[in-house]
Amino acid sequence: MIIHWFRRDLRLSDNTALHAALATGAPVIPVFIFDPAILKGERFGLPRLKFMLKGLEALDEDLRRRGSGLVVRYGDPVEVLPKLIAETGASAITFNRDVTPYAYKRDTAILNALPAKSFDDVLIHAPGEVEVLKDDGNPYTVYTPFRKRWENLPKPDVLLTDRNNFHSLEGIGSPPISSVCALDFGSTIDVPDAGESVAQRRLERFTGDAIYHYADTRNQLIVDPFGDPHGTSGLSPYVRFGMISARQMYHAAARLLQDADAISASERHSIQVWIGELAWRDFYNHILYHFPHVLNRSFKPQYDQVTYRDAPDEFERWQAGMTGYPVIDAAMRQMNQIGWMHNRARMIVASFLAKDLLIYWRRGDVHFMKHLIDGDPAANNGGWQWSAGTGTDAQPYFRIFNPVSQSQQYDPNGEYIRAFVPELRDVPTQYIHEPWKMLIPPKQYPAPIVDHAFARKRALEAFRNPNKGDLP
Fold first, then answer.
1. Helix-helix angle 377-388:265-290, to 10 degrees
2. 118: closest CA among 144, 138, 98, 145?
3. N- to C-terminal Cα distance for the chain?
4. Domain ranges of the chain
5. Domain 301-464 has CATH 3.40.190.10
6. Residue 189's pLDDT is what?
7. Which of 45, 63, 254, 397 has its CA 20 to 30 A from that of 190?
8. Looking at the whole model, is its pTM more than 0.85?
9. Percent of all residues in the chain with a pLDDT value above 90, rounded to a whole number
10. pLDDT (tens digit, 9 = 90+) per residue, 188-211?
11. Domain 123-156+197-290, what fold?
């Protein structure tokens, strides 16, 4: 028998390690372990847990239709897996690699102590492979040359298998999949349906229409990411937990490019832009793999010397969506309500925290991870450091988003703002982005927390002349 340890691969199709286990012909025991080190970590929160639990329930149902089921355990995998081997008599363990520093350390201990084998599956091109390194053997630290190398590499195929040699689980005890309350989390947020079949349907719907307009619509702020696909695909939570593979997403898009006569130049461009988002995902995971310090420090060390402000009241207002800037507040409230935020909005609110409020970007990074159902350590960190000007981007620190002009450009009629900031629903469109300019501003909505022009000058000075000091 072989144990397959599910982690960020909650699906049965195109699963590299699971495919290898099934290919042996031996009975495969499907296992998931709730690791308390992750559940109690500073980056883990209720929304992502609830979505993951839904995904685990869907995976268990898929396995039960195959005469098996998901074996659930709680504890340190380094301790749990040897006990499972002793209990089941399994001869091997398979699992797919992860690139976070904690996972790397944990998995190395397991590979050294147990008959385990790991596989590359989470990304399209795994870090460390010589093919995705620069000619001198060093990793890329700027996206554009990485993307050029990435897109010219042959892409791995989607794995196909018709094997069903899952163990019946006879004689193997397993508690039910833990509820949110049983794991000591409150339950105050609804999350979308999860699972492999949901992800596949969403990909099919997105590639059937919305992907052809992606380049033109992807930055428009949307209220419901999980309704009919418009602008964004809404697939980020699903690929985060491996309910769909990056390979499946890539090939679904790449197939559309094969019939040159069936699509226009603009449609081809849109498909390529969406594929580029998969390259971004790979890139940030490569950065985390090669430079693990980025989780706790700036990629560019000189910006660890910026004197950030310790302003707890302002940080709380940013968290609650009460800054007085409508687009900032709408975005933060969207995340608080549904556990998701549009990517353009993520850039706007990140820039606002790190530059307008001059509050240490890592506080925002951790806050996002605790509230997003698609929170991915590498992508979230990469996005925050990009917005803060401390990361891999070749653009210097002086990129500072203007929250008013961003709002006017990407939510011109204020539909996004009105959906999440009810205090502004009756404000005329001409004032929706700057309600403080009204003759009588809305009484229940705060004035701007800071003047953007002043804050921009303050941030430029802080980044231009960093003074070494303790980070807040």
1. 100
2. 98
3. 51
4. 2-121, 123-156+197-290, 301-464
5. no
6. 85
7. 63
8. yes
9. 85
10. 788 999 999 999 999 999 999 999
11. 1.25.40
Supply the CATH classification number for the domain 2-121.
Answer: 3.40.50.620
| pLDDT the model gives residue 175 | 86
Q: Which of 168, 205, 155 is nearest to 88 (CA)?
A: 168
414 burial level (CB within 10 Å; 0-12, 13-18, 19+): buried
Task: For helices 246-257 and 196-208, give the axis angle rounded to 10 degrees.
Answer: 20
Per-residue tokens: 102: 């904690």
Average confidence (pLDDT) over 218-233: 88
Residue 412 has pLDDT above 90, yes or no: yes
Which two structure tokens, joined as six digits, stand for 420? 């999440």
The CA distance from 97 to 108, in Å, is 10
d(CA 401, CA 384): 13
- Written as six digits, the tokens of 373 are 């159902």
Q: Which tokens sit at 191?
A: 């999350």
